[in-house]
# Entry
Amino acid sequence: MDLIKFLIVLAISVTLVTGEDVCYKETCQKPANNYRFLFYDVNPSEGFNLRRDVYMRMAVLANKLKNSQDPNLNSFLLVLPPWSHLMHWPYSEEPEHIPWSMFFDINSLNKFAPVIELHQYFALLKKQKYTKCILDEVYVLQHFEDMFESGNFEEKWLIEKCQKPPKMKFFYYANITASNVKCLSFHGPATKLAELFKLEKSRTLMLERAEVALHDTFGNDLYWKARRSMRFNRELRKVANDFRIMKLDSNDEDDLTTLPPDWRDEKPKRNAKGGPYLAVHMRRRDFLRGRADKVPDLLNVAKQISKKLNELKLAKVFIATDAPRIEFEELNKALSPKYEVYKYQASKHVESKYSAGGIAIIDQIICSYARYFIGTSDSTFSFRIQEEREILGFPTKSTFNVLCKNNTNCEKPSVWKIVY
Ligand SMILES: Nc1nc2c(ncn2[C@@H]2O[C@H](COP(=O)(O)OP(=O)(O)OP(=O)(O)O)[C@@H](O)[C@H]2O)c(=O)[nH]1
Ligand SMILES: *[C@@H]1O[C@H](CO)[C@@H](O)[C@H](O)[C@H]1NC(C)=O
Ligand SMILES: *[C@@H]1O[C@H](CO)[C@@H](O)[C@H](O)[C@H]1NC(C)=O
# Structure
């Protein structure tokens, strides 16, 4: 059965069993069908945009497993870790467990890697009357202890003593436990993990600290396929597009930014024009401390914006920022009234449904469609916007720019061009 059909059948059968609440099985030793399930999670201190990068490494792994001839390997589904307690998002007492569908188009992800949401997996277990989930194998990834001293960076993996006692709580759920936890010292691309998966038969397998595994090949066509499959959820795109139309005179037809409905039909292009506005991603908060040598003060940002607006003969600037309102006002005041300064203000509906994560994505989308983009040096938030602009087909000159600390300290960011 192909995955889409499987998920449809799953949705139907779950509907059929609702209301029926007798639980007589305890564990999830024998999950449905012949699928194997690959769970993963990332170091809690990593932000949303780095997690998106870790997903790409896992997605390339899942894609290669799916295309393998080995029946023990090609039956894997990748389970998407719900978003909870993210760094930089307002803290809530309860873990939020936000599913990926809130931010991304799952159908689109599935055209690259076979993925399933954790709640869908739960539904599957419930249908079989399981009341908790005991993972067969958990591997906590860790770096080889001597790697940096010895300078030996060869690709290898080895089950070793845990460098830290492993935590036994997964995805902040009390009903997921593990029968077997091992620590896996690892150096290499995520796809190297297939060597380990080949040797074992466990049906449910979890990778903790998945960010230890690296990209298979950074920046190749497969990398970009994984990236292109990460289309945002339809409603978020609509909110951003409405803002472009209403405030920024920007729409896909005029901006030459129309993409085919299916990312697999995208073709190389460099003729995107973008809406008649400059977009600036101004990362502040912890960057003021951590990256003090790179982040300019607000008056300086205003100067750089004015200069660029004059050069481009544009009147509108869109600001995406994590700064407190008062800093945005200060920037706004420092800019001449002949410019129109815009910031996205979420409606009550968007705020309560999508929270900080969704609002950040809307900011990213609006930045992606600008005539010219200036980001913040070293920010993964800015990197993701640059990638989006590569997909939309902008000339690289309009994309790979960052705010300068000052006139004498002004670096050019690395240019990572799209490859098909
Ligand atoms: N709405 C909005 N939120 C932002 C903006 N910049 C940063 N943020 C918030 O701050 C968080 C930190 O940025 P991330 O890029 O996700 O975190 P990170 O992976 O640690 O990356 P860095 O930017 O490199 O710190 C984001 O997830 C957003 O919640 C912005 O321009 N608009
Ligand atoms: C585990 O607990 C969560 C939250 O309480 C629930 O939604 C989920 O269905 C449970 N999973 C199983 C397999 O019972
Ligand atoms: C520019 O910034 C760098 C790094 O923060 C600093 O060392 C230097 O003194 C600054 N130069 C001027 C002219 O402000």
Remarks:
- The two ends are 30 Å apart (CA to CA).
